[in-house]
Amino acid sequence: MDRIADEHRKTMNKIVNNAQEAIADIHDGMTLMLGGFGLCGIPENAIAALVKSGVKELTCISNNAGVDDFGLGLLLQQKQIKKMISSYVGENAEFERQLLNGELEVDLIPQGSLAERCRAGGAGIPAFYTPAGYGTEVGEGKEVRVFDGKPHILETALKADFAIVKAWKGDRLGNLIYKGTARNFNPPMAMAGRVTIAEVEHLVEPGELDPNYIHTPGIFVQRIFEGKDYEKRIEQRTLRTR
């Protein structure tokens, strides 16, 4: 039985050597989900590998578009992104320039709706109703129904060819634990990719992660690698006054 268990574990090994190997089959025109909130919990190594690969015409689903010289801003600099599906994009001057010049398609979505559309994509829910956005440009052309006397608009689920997330710890089976606020958009996006790539700060052996604290089960992850040289920049440093 031990030999059979060992063979099974070998076939469940999802480790790839590095970010370059993890994203090697991402091609022009694909749709990507990228976890993170601001610059917190973003897959730094995978983004750098995408820049180096030269892949273009990407549709990127992310809460934000990074800043000019970091995060998704690096892909925008190289004009590798065709369309952004985001919630907040106010920290990126290059994003603004491309938008105003008609070089970039943009779909702005209320933050809660964006999170739920990603979660719905991973849960197999094709659409849902929400009051967020009713009566605004967000709701134009969308089906409206009234629940408890309040109008709701129909929003559809989001999915991606690849979901790229960043976690604190993971094992070779793909089980992931996020740390603190880096949990943000990573868990729902990890569920919604046809292929999910996880980069982690610490890659450990199966059994080293307490199953009570796993945020993303390995069934959702197809590739995992240990990242390096994380900068972990802070987008807007805010301190409490004493």
From TrEMBL:
Report the superkingdom from the record.
Bacteria
- What InterPro entries does the record tag this protein with? 3-oxoacid_CoA-transf_A (IPR012792), CoA_trans_fam_I (IPR004165), CoA_transf_BS (IPR004163), NagB/RpiA_transferase-like (IPR037171)
GO terms (molecular function) for this protein are:
CoA-transferase activity
Keywords of the record, alphabetical order, are:
Transferase
**Any matching Pfam family:** CoA_trans
- Has the keyword Transferase been applied to this entry? yes
NCBIfam families given in the database record = pcaI_scoA_fam
Q: Which family does it belong to?
A: Belongs to the 3-oxoacid CoA-transferase subunit A family.
Q: What is this protein called?
A: 3-oxoacid CoA-transferase subunit A
